[in-house]
Write a structure and sequence with these properties.
single chain, 93 residues, 67% helix
């Protein structure tokens, strides 16, 4: 659900920029261009999912000094696997 809301919000921003680009700064236009690329990637990941939520936590920080967050990331990843579990696992049971 949160991804759909995210997509709705940022698609709205992109549409606004596309229709009002002459009134906006270059930074805003570049930002909308970045959103377009992100939206495309998220939609592609969603389309590749076998079940909703499979790629929900696809990215994490690549900051080498971010190791203190690895434990939190792994914990959240396990929570997501429970929240968005593969339905085929339950069908087989």
């Amino acid at each position: 659900m949160i991804r759909r809301q995210w997509l709705y919000t940022y698609k709205g921003i992109v549409e606004y920029v596309d229709s009002n680009s002459r009134d906006l700064s270059q930074e805003q236009i570049i930002g909308a261009s970045i959103y377009k690329d992100l939206i495309k990637q998220v939609e592609e990941f969603i389309n590749l999912e076998k079940y909703e939520g499979q790629n929900y936590n696809r990215y994490k920080s690549r900051d080498p000094f971010d190791s203190k967050y690895e434990v939190i990331y792994q914990k959240r990843l396990k929570q997501i696997e429970v929240d968005f579990s593969d339905p085929e696992v339950y069908i087989k049971k």
